[in-house]
Specification:
mainly beta; 5-stranded antiparallel beta sheet; Phenylalanyl-tRNA synthetase subunit alpha; 4-stranded antiparallel beta sheet; 0% helix
Length: 132
C-alpha cells in the first residue's frame, strides 16, 4: 500500500533567513522568507516554524498561511530572534500545486544562522541563508 503513495519532490521552493535593516527600530533584524523560484504559483501554503534546543528547551510553534505565493516571488513569513540561533530551527512547508500536495521540512542546525554562511538567495537578489 505504501508503495502506491506518490510524494512529489519539492523543487524550486526555498526557505531563507535574511538579515535586513529595520528603519523603525534602527537595527538589523533576521527574517524568514518563503521563496517560490518556480514558474508556477503555489496555493494553500502553510509554513510552521519551531525550534528545539539540545537541553530540552523549545520555542513556541508559529503557523502562517498564505492563499497564493506567485511564481518567481518571495514573501516574508516572520521575524526570528537571535536568541534561538543556538536551537535547531525547523520550517515545515506544505502547499498545493497542480492539485498535488507537497511537503518538506527545512532545517537550520544550531549556530548555522550567521553571516559566515551567507549564499546567494534566488529571486531576492541578495545574500542570506538557505535552509536545507
Amino acid at each position: 500500500m505504501k508503495k502506491d503513495i506518490i510524494i512529489p519532490e519539492v523543487k524550486d521552493i526555498h526557505i531563507a533567513i535574511m538579515k535586513e535593516w529595520n528603519e523603525d527600530f534602527s537595527s538589523n533584524d533576521w527574517n524568514i522568507y518563503l521563496i517560490n523560484n518556480s514558474n508556477e504559483a503555489i496555493e494553500s501554503v502553510m509554513v510552521m516554524s519551531r525550534g528545539n534546543h539540545s537541553d530540552g528547551r523549545k520555542t513556541t510553534t508559529f503557523r502562517q498561511a498564505f492563499p497564493v505565493v506567485a511564481a518567481k516571488s518571495a514573501i516574508k513569513v516572520e521575524l526570528i530572534m537571535e536568541e534561538v540561533f543556538s536551537f535547531t530551527n525547523e520550517c515545515i512547508l506544505t502547499y498545493f500545486k497542480d492539485n498535488k500536495l507537497y511537503d518538506k521540512v527545512f532545517t537550520a542546525a544550531p549556530h548555522s544562522i550567521n553571516e559566515d554562511n551567507f549564499t546567494d538567495v534566488p529571486v531576492m537578489g541578495q545574500e542570506g541563508i538557505l535552509l536545507k
